[in-house]
Write a structure and sequence with these properties.
The structure holds two protein chains of two kinds. By secondary structure, chain A is mainly α. In chain A, 75% of the residues lie in helices and 0% in strands. Chain A has ten helices and no strands. Chain A is globular and about 60 Å long. Chain B is of the alpha/beta class. In chain B, strand 6, helix 6 (161-176) and strand 7 form a beta-alpha-beta unit. Classes of the chains: A mainly alpha, B alpha/beta. At the A-B interface, helix 1 and helix 4 of A face helix 2 of B.
Chain lengths: 264, 297
C-alpha cells in the first residue's frame, strides 16, 4: 500500500490574506489593452493600420495636386483605413477569447463577465482615440513635408472635424465589438461586419421602397457628413438612429449572450 | 474547502450531471474519478461558475465561486491546458493573469521555475508547446495567486512519468500545508497514489465516495499459491469463501486470516495482498459500460 508522508514542520495552513479586492475596471481595461497587442495577430493588425495610414499620406504627397496638400486633406483620408481595420481589432479582442478558448481562464479569474466586457469596450475605445491622435500626427507630418517641398501645407482645421473624427472611429470600433459580442466567432463576425453594411447600402440604392429607411439606417450614408464638418440636427438624428441599430442593439444583445453562454 | 450540493446539469433531455454532492476538506487531496464523458469536467466547470447548473450549487470556502472578489487569489483553476492563446508566449500568458489578479510580476518567474519551464521555454509561444508543457504552464497559472484551493481537470494528461511523479509531490505538499486539492482523472492508478479521498462518478451520478483506503480495501484479500487446489481446500477448512480471479483467489477476509489458514494447512503462498478489487471492478464496469455505449452509437 502507499504510505502517506508524515507532515513536515512547515505544515501550517496558509493564512487568509486580508483585503482581497476585486480587480478595478481600470486594471481590467489595462489588461485588455495589453491583450490587444501581445499576440502576433493583434500586433500585426496595429502595424498594418499604422502603415496603411502612412501610405495614404505618402501617396497623396506624390499624386495629389499641390493645392490639395493641406492638413485637412491629409487628415480625413487617413482615417478611412483605420475605420475599416480597427473594428476588426475590436472583433478579435472579443472573439479570440472563444476561438483560442482563453475565455476559460479569463472568466475563471473574473467571473463577473460584464466587467470583462466593459473593460474590452473601454480598451477598444482607447485604441480608437489613439488612432485619431495617430491620424493627426500623420497628417501633420504630411503637411510639414508638403510645406517643405512645395507650396502646399495649409494648416486650417475646423475643430468640429476633430469631434467628428472621434465619433467616427469610436462608433466604428464599437460596432465591430458589438458584432463580435453577438456572434462570438471570428470569421463570422468579421465577414458580417464588413459585408452587411455594404449589402444594406446596395439594397438601399436598388430597392425604391428601402431608399427612405436607408437614409436612417445605412451607416455608410449617415456617417458621411462627419467628414465634411458640422452636422445639422437632422443629420445627427439620422446618425443616432443608425448607430442605435448597428451599435447599441448588437452590443446589448451580445452582452446578454456572453453573460449566459457556457464557457467550455 | 469545496462543497458541492445536489449539482445537476441537463442538456435538453440528456442529463450530464445528476444530483452530485461531495465535500473536499482542507489538508486533503480528493480524486474525482470517472470514465471519459462521465460528467467530471461539467461538474468542475459548474463549481467554477463557468457553466450554469440546472439545479443545485457549489461553494468554495463557503461562497459561490462567482461571488469571490478575486477568485485567482483563493482558487487555482486548471480546467484545460490547451485553452491558451497560441500566439502568446508562456511568460506573457502568466503576466496577463498576474496583472489581472494584482500579483507581483516577480511571481511569474518564480512560478515558471517551480513548474520546470525554463527561460527558453517561457519565451516561446504556446503554439510550440507540447501538451506536457501546457499542463505545466496551466499549473503555474493555477498556482500564481498563491491560492488555498486547487481545482484541476486531468492535470496528468500529457505529462511523462517523471512529470506525473513531480506533480504528485507538488499536490501532496500543497495539501500537507493545509490546502485543498480536487483533481479529476479517468485513470484510477493515476490518482490512487496521491489522493486521500475518492469520488467516483459514472453516467453523471456519484457511484462511490469515501476514504481511499476504505474504498480500495473493500475488495478483500488476493492470494496465490503454486498449488491452487491445496489452497482452496485450506480456505474451505478455515471456512473462508474464495472466488476465482484472473491471477489467483479473492477471499472475503483480511490478510491475517488467509495467511493463518494457509499456515495451518501447510500451503506455501506465492502472493498475499489486499485486493483492490472492489473499486477497480466498479471502475472497470463503469468504463466498460461507457465504451459499449460509445460503440452502440
Amino acid at each position: 500500500m502507499t504510505t502517506t508522508t508524515a507532515p513536515t514542520a512547515s505544515a501550517v495552513a496558509p493564512q487568509r490574506r486580508p483585503g482581497l479586492r476585486r480587480p478595478s475596471l481600470l486594471r481590467l481595461t489595462g489588461v485588455e489593452l495589453r491583450k490587444l497587442t501581445d499576440t502576433r495577430a493583434g500586433l500585426w493588425l496595429l502595424i498594418t493600420i499604422g502603415l496603411t495610414t502612412a501610405a495614404i499620406v505618402v501617396l497623396q504627397l506624390i499624386y495629389a495636386n499641390e493645392a490639395d496638400h493641406t492638413f485637412v486633406n491629409f487628415f480625413v483620408p487617413s482615417m478611412l483605413p483605420v475605420g475599416v481595420l480597427l473594428p476588426v481589432l475590436g472583433i478579435l479582442s472579443i472573439t479570440s477569447e472563444w476561438s483560442q478558448r482563453t475565455a476559460l481562464s479569463t472568466y475563471a479569474l473574473v467571473p463577473r463577465r460584464e466587467r470583462v466586457v466593459a473593460a474590452k469596450l473601454a480598451a477598444v475605445v482607447v485604441a480608437a482615440l489613439a488612432s485619431v491622435l495617430a491620424s493627426l500626427a500623420v497628417a501633420a507630418a504630411g503637411t510639414l513635408v508638403a510645406g517643405a517641398i512645395g507650396d502646399g501645407g495649409g494648416w486650417r482645421f475646423d475643430e468640429s472635424l476633430l469631434l467628428n473624427a472621434v465619433i467616427f472611429q469610436v462608433a466604428n470600433v464599437l460596432m465591430g465589438a458589438g458584432f463580435g459580442l453577438l456572434l462570438l466567432n471570428t470569421p463570422l463576425a468579421v465577414v458580417s461586419y464588413l459585408l452587411l453594411p455594404t449589402v444594406w447600402s446596395i439594397l438601399g440604392e436598388l430597392v425604391p421602397g428601402l431608399r427612405g429607411p436607408a437614409g436612417w439606417l445605412d451607416t455608410g450614408r449617415t456617417m458621411e457628413p462627419l467628414f465634411t464638418g458640422e452636422l445639422t440636427a437632422g443629420q445627427w438624428g439620422r446618425l443616432a438612429v443608425s448607430l442605435l441599430v448597428w451599435l447599441a442593439v448588437p452590443v446589448l444583445a451580445g452582452l446578454v449572450r456572453t453573460l449566459r453562454r457556457e464557457v467550455a | 474547502m469545496i462543497s458541492v450540493e445536489h449539482l445537476s446539469k441537463r442538456y435538453g433531455r440528456h442529463s450530464a450531471v445528476d444530483d452530485v454532492s461531495f465535500r473536499c476538506e482542507p489538508g486533503t487531496v480528493t480524486g474525482f474519478l470517472g470514465p471519459n464523458g462521465a460528467g467530471k469536467s461539467t461538474t468542475l466547470r459548474m463549481i467554477c461558475g463557468l457553466t450554469p447548473p440546472t439545479a443545485g450549487g457549489a461553494t468554495v470556502d463557503g461562497r459561490p465561486y462567482r461571488q469571490l472578489a478575486n477568485p485567482g487569489r483563493e482558487v487555482g483553476v486548471l480546467l484545460d491546458a490547451s485553452a491558451q492563446h497560441a500566439g502568446r508566449t508562456g511568460r506573457e500568458a502568466l503576466a496577463v493573469a498576474a496583472y489581472t489578479m494584482g500579483v507581483d510580476r516577480r511571481e511569474v518567474g518564480a512560478k515558471l521555475e517551480q513548474v520546470g519551464l525554463d527561460a527558453a521555454a517561457a519565451k516561446r509561444r504556446v503554439r510550440a508547446y507540447s501538451l506536457g508543457m501546457r499542463q505545466r504552464l496551466g499549473l503555474a497559472l493555477a498556482l500564481l495567486g498563491d491560492p488555498r484551493v486547487l481545482i484541476l481537470d486531468e492535470p496528468a494528461n500529457g505529462l511523462d512519468p517523471e512529470g506525473i511523479f513531480w506533480m504528485r509531490g507538488l499536490l501532496r505538499d500543497f495539501a500537507d500545508r493545509g490546502g485543498t486539492v480536487l483533481l479529476s482523472s479517468h485513470l484510477l492508478r493515476e490518482v490512487e497514489a496521491v489522493a486521500d479521498r475518492l469520488v467516483v462518478i459514472g453516467g453523471g451520478r456519484i457511484v462511490a465516495q469515501g476514504d481511499k483506503t476504505e474504498l480500495l480495501a473493500g475488495g478483500g484479500t488476493m492470494v496465490r499459491a503454486r498449488d491452487v487446489g491445496a489452497l482452496r481446500r485450506a480456505l474451505d477448512a478455515a471456512g473462508l469463501a474464495a472466488t476465482d480471479a484472473a491471477d489467483g483467489l479473492v477471499v472475503r477476509a483480511d490478510g491475517e486470516a488467509v495467511g493463518q489458514a494457509a499456515v495451518d494447512a501447510g500451503v506455501a503462498l506465492t502472493e498475499l495482498r489486499p485486493a483492490s478489487g472492489g473499486l477497480e471492478q466498479l471502475f472497470l464496469t463503469l468504463t466498460a459500460a461507457e465504451s459499449t455505449r460509445e460503440a452502440d452509437k
